[in-house]
Structures are given as C-alpha cells and as structure tokens.
Write a structure and sequence with these properties.
With 499 residues, this protein is mostly helical. It has 21 helices and three strands.
C-alpha cells in the first residue's frame, strides 16, 4: 500500500505542477499580457489543461485509487485517508469529461476573456455575445456528461461546492431574500448618510501604500506573495510560497480599491495558511469556493467595515490623505463605508444588498441551463431583474451584464458561493467572538494575530481535506445556517440607521 500511495502522490504532484503552470499563464494574461497575445495564450492554456486532465484521469490513477480505497475508511481524517476520498470523487467526475472538451474549454474561455475586456471597455455586448454563446454550449455539453441528474446545475455547483445541490442553495436564498428585502425597505425610510467625501481625488500611490500597510498588519506574508493591478481583482496561487493578489484602484474614490485589496488579502491568508504537508497533493487549496469566500468576506466586512477597525486606522487614513478627510468625523466615515443603497455594481454593493446581486446571477445561470434564457436575452434580462431585485437599472451594459469576468472564464456555478460565503463568514465570526472574548479590543488595537491563528486552526489547516459541510461541523459544531448572518445584518444596521 505504501508503494501505491507514493506512486499516486507522484502523479498528483505532476498534475499540480501543470495546473499551477497554467495559473502562471492565466495571471500573466490578466496582469501583463498585451492583447495581441490572446490566441497564443489560449493555445498554451489549452495544452496545459489537457495534459493535466489526461494525467489525472489515466487508468493508472483509477487503479491506484481502487487499491487504496480502504485507506479512507481506516484513517478517515488523516491526510492520506482524506486524499484517497477526495481524489476518488474528483477522479470519477473527471473521467466523464473527454480531454478534447477540456482543451476546447480552455481555449474558448481564454479567447472569451479577451473579448470580455474589449466589450466592457467599449460598452458593446455584441463583442462578447458570440464568445459567451460558445462558452455556454460547452457548459451545456459538460452538464450532459453527468446525465441523468436531479437538476442540470448540480454538476456545475459541485465543482465549487462539493456535495451541495441546487435545491439546497435555493433553500438558503429563500431564507435570506425576504428578510434582507425587509431590512432594505426599513433602511430606505431613514435619512441617507452622506458619503460624498469618499468620492474625491485619492492619490493612487497613497491608496496602494495604505492597502499594503493594512495587508501586512493582518498577516499577509509578502515573502510569499505580491500585489499587482488587474481589471477585475483576484487571488491566485502558484504553489506553496507564492500566493498573489491583484486590485483595481479608482483614483477618485477610496473604498473600491482598498476593500478589494482587503477582500483578496482574505483569500490569500487562507492559501498561505494551508500546511506544507499538503503541497502538490491537490489538497493544498481551499475546501470550497464558499469557504474561501467566507475568509475574504470576513476580513473585508466583518473586520474591515467594523467601527473597531477604523478606530485604529482612521487617524492614519486622515493623515495619509490630508486634507481630504480632515473635517470628516470617524462616526460619519463609518456610516459612509456602510451606507445601504441599491447599486449597480456587485463588487461595490453594501452588505445589506450584496446577496441580491448574487441571487440575480444565480437565477440567470439556472435559467440558461434550464433553457428558459438565451445569451442574446441577457442584457435585457439583467436590466429587468435589477429593477425587480434592487429597484435600479444600469444605463450601460458595462454597468450591467458585462460587469463580471466570471462567465468569460466559464465559471457557471460559481456565483452562489459569494452569498454562501457571507453566511459561513457570519457563522465563523459568531464563533470567534465567543472563543476570543477580547476580539473587538484586539481589532481596536490593530492586532489580528489571534483571529488569524483561530482561522488557521479552524479552517486553513485542513486545506481541501474535508467537504464544506464536514469542515463547518468540525470547526464550529453546526451546519450551514443563514440565521447568524441575518442576525449580524439586523444588529449592525439597526445601530447604524436607528431602526
């Protein structure tokens, strides 16, 4: 058994190397690559992803997993026992997918990314439509590999949230939607706090320096990472010791760039906290995208938009951007960064309305998979649903259907994880405040080591060894539960708006 296990790990290490090499190319494509490199880059990514898929789905891997099957029963929580269980699930899923499809998908999405950048910049959905149609055809073909199914969206969701079903997501959203809508309606009856001071010239370089300082304080290791610029902020890891983030700075607004950096920093802290013992095993990644998102949203919102956080950092912020904020009181700044107002852009949405942006995208994705919607209908559907969900409508497609990069990447099934991440973040935050009794005081002092250590122990240490449901139960002793998030929103905004 030892020899078989070592052989399996050697193959997985090769697959890991190929995937991380593809990550390097993907990162460069979004950060440095000139537009003229799109076709060549799509071919390169196509080759690497095909090779990784073929290596992982080889008959030898299947034989090794079968030979080692008892290990997952004998040592269910050990690194090796979890490795066999997780890889068996992935293997049985991946072997249904032809290598030709994998190569075609990588090439199609690479070209679609470049088309999306151009379409968004020039506000012309027509530049992107045919590319998205090609992506959707491949997604529909992918779903067909897993027939029969309870719902066509299930196999896509499973790529990001193992074992979670479309019906379970709908149940969570059904619990969230009416109470969040009621909260928004109550807030709408109250005076709107001023936030004009957030929208004025904030020097680009100083925004960058301030973000670097805060990221350093919360524990991001620059010896194992770096920050660059991209149209859409993201985090990517190339292996143990190299976890990179990007942000997008608006020189005429403070909040978007800073909170994007803090959000991506949360993702990066997760990746940097995964133990070296899992390196090159394919378990050296997050448990799921919702768990990953819980880390970024916890740092961005539960920490970064808290009063305690700005009691520490606001004097430094005022000094950095003097005289822009000299006359703005901390209380007014705190209210401004937590202002509730239906908005067009998901990444700039407040906590109270954010999940409605996700539910809109979820509805569109499910509708496309069920055959109710077509790609050409998306701009109009987007406007209609924005009016229905949030009471606002985009004037341009760049503010609407073109605002997110995800569909160009073929990431159908990904969007629900953002809202689920909010839910998990609230559960973790509630548990952390019970176990770390002086958490608010620590944040007020600009001390984050205890919180980061707690997250390391509860979440990061396990990498992708456990399914999200199992991880959450182990970490805090309860399943996915929307109630703590609803309680958090109600308490926060009751105080802010005197509801």
């Amino acid at each position: 058994m030892t020899e078989s296990l070592q052989r399996l790990k050697a193959i997985l290490a090769e697959v890991s190397d190929l995937r991380r090499a593809a990550n390097v190319l993907s990162w460069d494509q979004q950060v440095n690559m000139p537009p003229g490199g799109a076709e060549a880059r799509s071919d390169q990514l196509s080759t690497l992803t095909r090779l990784a898929h073929e290596r992982f789905t080889s008959p030898e891997v299947g034989e090794l997993l079968n030979h080692l099957a008892d290990l997952s029963d004998q040592q269910p929580l050990s690194d090796d026992g979890c490795l066999i269980k997780v890889m068996s699930h992935r293997y049985h899923k991946q072997t249904r997918i032809p290598s030709d499809w994998v190569a075609a998908f990588a090439r199609t999405t690479s070209l679609a990314q470049q088309a999306w950048v151009k379409a968004k910049a020039e506000n012309k959905f027509s530049f992107f439509q045919s590319h998205l149609e090609a992506v959707l055809l491949l997604i529909q073909e992918y779903v067909g590999f897993f027939a029969p199914y309870e719902h066509p969206y299930d196999s896509l969701l499973d790529n990001f949230e193992p074992s979670l079903t479309t019906a379970e997501v709908k149940a969570v959203f059904d619990a969230l939607r009416p109470k969040q809508v009621a909260l928004i309606q109550a807030i709408a009856q109250k005076p709107t706090p001023p936030d004009h001071f957030l929208y004025q010239p904030f020097e680009d370089a100083k925004q960058w320096e301030f973000s670097v300082k805060v990221l350093t304080d919360i524990g991001y290791r620059w010896s194992s990472g770096c920050m660059h610029r991209s149209e859409h902020p993201f985090t990517i890891e190339f292996g143990h010791g190299d976890v990179r983030i990007t942000t997008h700075i608006n020189p005429n607004a403070f909040a978007p760039g800073f909170f994007a950096a803090l959000h991506e920093g949360g993702h990066a802290l997760y990746e940097q906290g995964i133990p070296h013992s899992l390196y090159r095993t394919l378990l050296d990644e997050g448990a799921s995208m919702a768990v990953h998102e819980s880390q970024s949203r916890l740092w961005e919102n539960f920490v970064g938009r808290s009063l305690a956080f700005w009691e520490h950092y606001y004097p430094d912020l005022q000094h950095t951007f003097a005289p822009a904020l000299d006359s703005v009181r901390l209380e007014d700044f705190y209210k401004a960064i937590n202002k509730v107002e239906p908005s067009l852009i998901r990444t700039e949405a407040d906590e109270a309305t954010y999940n409605l942006h996700i539910m809109l995208r979820f509805d569109l994705e499910v509708g496309m998979l069920e055959g109710k919607y077509t790609v050409k209908d998306l701009p109009a559907l987007w406007r209609e649903k924005m009016a229905e969900y949030l009471g606002v409508q985009p004037l341009t497609d760049s503010q609407g259907v073109l605002q997110d990069i995800h569909w160009s990447d073929g990431l159908f099934g990904y969007f629900p994880t953002y809202a689920l991440g909010n839910v998990i973040a609230a559960q973790l935050w509630k548990a952390a405040n019970v176990e770390l009794s002086d958490l608010s005081l620590s944040i007020r002092k600009g001390e984050f080591a205890d919180l980061l250590h707690w997250l390391r122990k509860k979440i990061h240490l396990h990498g992708a060894k456990l399914e999200p449901k199992q991880l959450l139960q182990l970490a805090i002793g309860e399943p996915l539960n929307a109630q703590p998030y609803l309680e958090y929103l109600q308490e926060k905004y009751t105080h802010l708006y005197q509801l």
